[in-house]
Amino acid sequence: MTRARAALGLAAALLLGPALAGCASDADAAGGGTPELTAEGAYIPRPPTAELAGGFLTIENTGDADDALTSVTSEAADSVEIHTTEGGTMHQADALLVPAGGELRLAHGGSHLMIMGLDSRPAEGDTVPIQLHFEKSPAISLEVPVRPATYTGE
Ligand SMILES: [Cu+2]
Known about the structure:
The protein is α+β, with helices and mostly antiparallel strands. The chain has one helix spanning about 1-30; strands at about 35-45, 50-60, 65-75, 75-85, 90, 95-100, 105, 110-120, 125-135, 140-145. Helices cover about 20% and strands about 45% of the residues.
């Protein structure tokens, strides 16, 4: 009797298992995958004044869903904007895609962060705290090192 009940329990588990897996894959099809983000190589070329500094980094997404960088904040600055560069002209972007299995590169001459109104002009070797905010992933906090003014990450 006990053995029969155990067998029934096992059968129930086998039936439930695939049902749950089915739910999970339905969620994936509806865009329910998970982005996995890491930020690398962040730097700020030393700005001439505290008014305006550029910020560069690469955000890698090893997950199976797209994400987007939606805003950037810093407790050491008045505001931080996300900019793209087209034909030498900067434009403010509301959000930048971080594609699944790919990366978002904010690099010299291209997209970048525009950090405005720093508390003071940072020196080489200082760090500036920034927080990256995403559509899906939790925020990433970074201490971004200040490099020489001519540094381009290469
Ligand atoms: Cu800019």
